[in-house]
Amino acid sequence: MLFFDQPITPTAAKGVYANETVKKWAKKIKDGDAFIIVSPEYNHGYPAVLKNALDSIFIEWNKKPVGFVSYGGVGGSRAVEQLRQVVIELEMIPIRSAIHIPGEVYMSVINEKVPVNPELFKSLNPKLEKLLVQLLWHAKILKPARD
How far apart are the C-alpha atoms of 123 and 100, rounded to whole Å? Predict the structure, then answer.
């Protein structure tokens, strides 16, 4: 993904993008009905490349639910808090449940040999189930509303 460099904002572009990479990205996002954003927390926020990916298109995100999985300082909660504000401005619907991978799990995975032992993530299963149930419920309701 190239950094946004167009003379007009994606909001004003109304889905017509000049850059071929952005056109491909927009097509992929347009085809989706719901999203899970996985992001580290980096300096109390999320990475610039993710901000650029979100901001380079607009209408393709609209009226679609989004959930979050994060890791890093405080389980990535500060990054998710900021992402919720951004996706609302993209007219997305952030669901309440999120998965914040605890530091001890994250550090264990970093030190684990490949393939990673799935037992490390077992404690996250109830949270994952809750996130998926909410995300799918919203996706089923919003798809016909968008159509």
Answer: 11
Residue 128 contacts by C-beta under 8 Å, 6 or more apart in sequence?
A: 99
Least confident of 17-21, 43-47, 86-90: 17-21
| CATH code for the part of the protein at 10-146 | 3.40.50.360
- Structural contact between residues 98 and 132, judged by C-beta atoms closer than 8 angstroms: no
The C-alpha atoms of residue 39 and residue 71 are separated, in whole angstroms, by 7
pLDDT, one tens digit per residue, over 48-57 is: 999 999 999 9
Q: What 3-state DSSP class applies to 42?
A: strand
Sheet hosting strand 93-101, strand order edge to edge: 35-40, 65-71, 93-101
Whether the Cβ atoms of residue 19 and residue 6 lie closer than 8 Å to each other:
yes
67 forms bridges with which residues in the sheet? 36
What six digits make up the tokens of 13? 């572009």
Model confidence, pTM? 0.90
pLDDT tens, 99-146?
999 988 888 888 877 788 888 888 899 999 999 999 999 999 999 999
